[in-house]
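Before the break, one more example. Copy the sequence into your notebook; we will annotate it together after we see the structure.
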Amino acid sequence: MILSLNLKRNQDTQAFARERGAMVERLRNHYRIRDERVLAAMAAVPRHLFVPEALRGNAYGDHALPIDQGQTISQPFIVARETELLELTSRDRVLEIGAGSGYQTAILSQVAGQVYSLERLPELARNAQKVITDLGIRNATIRCFDGTWGWNEFAPFQGILVAAGSPEIPQPLVDQLVAGGHLVIPVGSEKEQRLLRLTRTEEGTKTEDFGACQFVKLIGRFGWEK
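Here is what the structure looks like once it is written out:
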């Protein structure tokens, strides 16, 4: 169920609404995103509120954008694709690693029951939580911590989404998945990764490759050192 978002007066103009609609049509027709709940979430969440004010005119373009602390807000397609690959239901508990601007967190909040998100940079975590709260989203919590450890307090999770590239799959994240749950993560070098989906099974794990991608580095104990 798509939550009712609190859009303050003048924050969501007719122009932004049109651009968001065009973005969703591009996701549907060009990128072949098929999960209607994901598309509805992308249509509902005001992406322009998660980017620096000077870049809001570019918020719905087909590209990533820079945010504070040398990080990025991912291309809309990547946000939708990672979310779709999780195959979440409205009852599921999901963990996000790398909250960044909070946009992916907001999208997850529309398709999952509860979202727990970790961000290692304190300023980003604070800003992301503020936007989330201002939008009236009550089923998402952002904490500042090394996300490669996961969030064992609320494990196990039906889905785990990693929004940064790792040299390998962090074992603590695998351990915090339920049987049948999905972990979606970019894995590879600093320059290029492959978008992988690991599914935990009763017998072990199964990994699928969904193509090339490029993310900022996942820094932490079980990721890149710096």
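The two ends are 39 Å apart (CA to CA). DSSP finds six helices and nine strands in the chain. Try to locate both features in your own notes.
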